[in-house]
Write a structure and sequence with these properties.
75% of the residues lie in helices and 0% in strands. The chain is mainly alpha-helical. It has one domain. It is a single-pass membrane protein. It holds the Pfam family OAD_gamma. The chain crosses the membrane at residues 6-29. It is found in: Cell membrane.
Length: 72
């Protein structure tokens, strides 16, 4: 009985040690990656205004597609 309890605590201690080691190593890797990660590019919040001619063509294409879909 005493050997079983000793074995249980040694196993639990081993698992606890390796899980703690895993958390520490993962945290270190995360901090290293954040340190050497390139800065994100700043993208404009408002996209450039599109050409009105392209909007008219797009509207015509979408209208034709809807008409063809409803004609089935």
């Amino acid at each position: 009985m005493a050997e079983g309890v000793t074995l249980m605590f040694m196993g639990m201690g081993t698992v606890f040690f390796f899980l703690t080691l895993l958390v520490v190593v993962t945290s270190l890797m995360s901090s290293l990656i954040q340190k050497y990660e390139p800065k994100p590019l700043i993208t404009p919040k408002n996209p450039e205004s599109s050409d009105p001619l392209n909007d008219q063509i797009l509207l015509a294409v979408i209208s034709a597609a809807i008409h063809k879909h409803r004609a089935r």
